[in-house]
Amino acid sequence: MGERRTESAKAWTLLLIAAAFEIVFALSSAANEGFTRLVPSLITAVAGGGGVYLLSLALKTLDVGIGYTVWTGIGSVGAVVFGALLFGESITVGKVVCLVAIIGGVLGLHMTTESTPEADQAADDAAGRPESVEPERTAKQ
Predict the structure, then answer these.
(1) Handedness of CA 48, 54, 55, 56 (dihedral sign)
(2) pLDDT reported for residue 140
(3) According to its record, how does it sit in the membrane (predicted)?
């Protein structure tokens, strides 16, 4: 069980790093002016590829629906916040309310994600581990 928790913690860490790449991808996409500026264009390509790669590693353990939703949610919130800080984009009360809802949803998904035997076996298969063997239980006489 401890190994599965470690795998889960690793997957969530990879997912958070992937989300940071997603934020950089979004911001550099705005700065590259249609891929006409070299440095922002290179940053866009590296951040986009890196984010998708790290997401794919996290999805070896996490459910795709949960992982992808969290990844895009964090990316969306980060893009709005850093877009305002770096590019002077507006943040309205309505945007703040919606961002809080996204953050609440992401936290809720993280806190309610449970491990199931099927998900555990899929994680074992993806990691190349043999099937878990439970010890035989004998009835008390």
Answers:
(1) positive
(2) 46
(3) Multi-pass membrane protein
